[in-house]
Design brief:
Blueprint: E1 2-3, E2 6-7, E3 12-14, H1 23-31, E4 36-37, E5 42-43, H2 52-57, E6 68-72, H3 76-88, E7 93-98, H4 118-132, E8 139-146, H5 154-164, E9 168-175, H6 187-195, E10 200-203, H7 209-219, E11 223-226, H8 236-246, H9 255-290, H10 296-303, H11 309-326, H12 333-345
Parallel strand pairs: 3-4, 3-11, 5-6, 6-7, 7-8, 8-9, 9-10, 10-11
Antiparallel strand pairs: 1-2
Helix pairs in contact: 1-9, 3-4, 4-5, 5-6, 9-10, 9-11
The chain binds flavin mononucleotide (FMN).
Flavin mononucleotide binds near residues 17, 19, 70, 226 and 229.
Length: about 350
């Protein structure tokens, strides 16, 4: 599959997640089998570009190509400026956020709220395409199925965005009103796929090869985007790719390999955030990595009390070494629950 002139190695993508899919996490997911990864959203507010948070998000050192940056905002001229700013800093693809439900950026309902104002949404797409296209940078769009159950306008918006020049459309199968609740719905994604010629990416609740296969069959989508299921499981992309290609699941990853990936991730993470901030923001990644593993919950609580990198790294290394002593391969959550029960009984 291609986005503009960029050929992608496969069609399993990392969904943008603010506070999660920073450069270290994206690089790791790409190395472990994701074909493409979009950055966390960057605000279109110029006054925030020099903030530490935004400048970290605009740092793409060592990131494999194509570098895709998601921008969020509610003003067409500001969004065009944000596209140009990020292209100057290495963005090779600009993604427009019309999917995020939070009232976070610009002190206003940006993200999925734009779906409620189609003329504004379209003006933003046109302005961003006008800024990016002359520089050879494709523009993509990430949206939900609509604002609410009674206003599912993804198909209309997708058609208009395609006419305005977007190169790919990703659809999260929920309305803005649903937030992250309920189950993702794939019929609207199928309708978007049938309505446009540009590639369509299906997103929402994909957490296994079986689910990936079902969503592909249901939607006819060109690619899949995985968000929450990759938290603490960056190898999920390679795992699903293997099963889709070979018809059977690969072996569970070795505990030693999982530990190695996590430690590599932590080193990169501290490198980007520094010791003080890094040790705190790494906790969520460690928590996700040990979730469902035997003794994982107790370890998470203990690890959350450590506040320097060396202690955090040491604790993670020791904990996984102990786990590797009892399990060569990463236990499934059901086995882990069983182990916990047995150790409580003992
Ligand atoms: C913590 C978190 C942060 C997110 N941040 C963004 C974001 O910055 N931009 C965006 O378009 N979507 C964002 N999303 C939505 C995801 O990209 C994705 O559409 C959603 O989680 C559904 O996919 P999933 O079921 O595979 O997680 C975020 C989701 C989560 C859980």
């Amino acid at each position: 599959m291609r986005i503009g002139r960029h050929e992608l190695p496969n069609t399993l993508f990392v969904a943008p997640m603010a506070g999660v899919t920073d450069r270290p996490f994206r690089v790791l997911c790409r190395r472990l089998g994701a074909g493409y990864a979009v950055s966390e959203m960057v605000t279109s507010r110029r006054d925030l570009w020099s903030s530490l948070k935004t400048s970290r998000r605009a740092d793409h050192a060592g990131e494999p190509s194509p570098v895709a940056v998601q921008i969020a905002g509610i003003d067409a001229a500001m969004m065009a400026e944000a596209a140009a700013y990020n292209i100057d800093r290495g963005a090779q693809i600009i993604d427009i956020n019309m999917g995020c439900p939070a009232k976070k950026v610009c002190n206003a309902w940006a993200g999925s709220a734009l779906m409620r104002d189609e003329p504004l949404a379209l003006a933003i797409v046109e302005a961003v395409v006008a800024a990016a296209e002359p520089r050879g940078v494709p523009v993509t769009l990430k949206m939900r199925t609509g604002w609410s159950a009674s206003q599912r306008n993804a198909v209309r918006l997708a058609r208009a965005a395609e006419s305005a020049g977007v190169a790919m459309i990703a659809v999260h199968g929920r309305t803005r009103e649903q937030g992250y609740g309920g189950a993702a719905e794939y019929d609207t994604i199928a309708a978007v796929k049938a309505a446009v010629r540009v590639p369509v990416v299906a997103n929402g609740d994909i957490d296994s090869a079986a689910k990936a296969r079902a969503v592909l069959a249901r939607t006819g989508a060109d690619a899949l985007m995985i968000g929450r299921a990759a938290q603490g499981r960056p190898w999920i992309f390679g795992e699903i790719a293997h099963e889709l290609a070979h018809g059977e699941a690969p072996p569970r990853p070795a505990v030693a390999a999982v530990a190695g990936w996590l430690i590599e991730h932590l080193h990169d993470h501290y490198g980007l955030y520094g010791e003080e901030a890094g040790v705190k923001s790494a906790r969520k990644h460690i928590g996700w990595a040990v979730r469902g593993l035997p003794g994982g919950e107790a370890f998470r609580a203990e690890m959350n009390r450590l506040d320097d990198c060396a202690a955090q790294l040491g604790a993670v290394t020791d904990w996984f070494a102990r786990l590797a002593g009892s399990h060569a391969l990463l236990p499934l959550p059901a086995e882990a629950a069983n182990d916990d029960l047995m150790s409580r009984r003992a």
